Amino acid sequence: MQGIGEILKSKEIKRDTRNSHEHQAFGNRLAEELNDTKHRALYIRLAKTQERNILEQARDFVISQEHVTKKGPLFMWKYKQIKDAKKTKEKATR
C-alpha cells in the first residue's frame, strides 16, 4: 500500500502560475465565477485594496441570481450599493 506522500508525488499537480499572492487567487477566482475574465485585473485590484467581506457579500448576491447574463456589472452595482450603505452607517454612528 502506498503512502499519501508517494501518491501525491506520482500525481503532477500544477500550480496556477497566475497566483503568487492570496489576493491574486481571490481575484482570479472571482473573475472566473462571474464569467468576466476580461476584467481579471480589476477583480485582483479590488481583492487587494478593498474589504473582503464587502466583496464576498456582493459575490454571494450575484451567484444567487440565476437568470443573469452579465454578472460583472451586477457585481459592481451590488458592491457599490453595499459600500455606500456601509459609509452612511458609519456617518450615522459618528
List the helices and strands and how they pair.
Elements: H1 4-10, H2 22-33, H3 40-49, H4 52-64, H5 71-93
Write up this protein.
This protein has 94 residues and is mostly helical. It has one domain (19-93). 69% of the residues lie in helices and 0% in strands. It has helices at residues 4-10, 22-33, 40-49, 52-64, 71-93. Helix 4 crosses helix 5. The N and C termini lie far apart (64 Å). The mean pLDDT is 90. Residues 8-31 have a biased composition (Basic and acidic residues).
Order of helices and strands: HHHHH
Low-confidence stretches: none
Q: Residue-averaged pLDDT, rounded?
A: 90
Number of strands: 0
Number of helices: 5
Instruction: Give the tally of structural domains.
Output: 1
Label the overall shape. elongated
Region (Disordered): 1-31
Biased composition (Basic and acidic residues): 8-31
Characteristics:
elongated; 94 residues; mainly alpha
Brief summary:
This protein is mainly α.
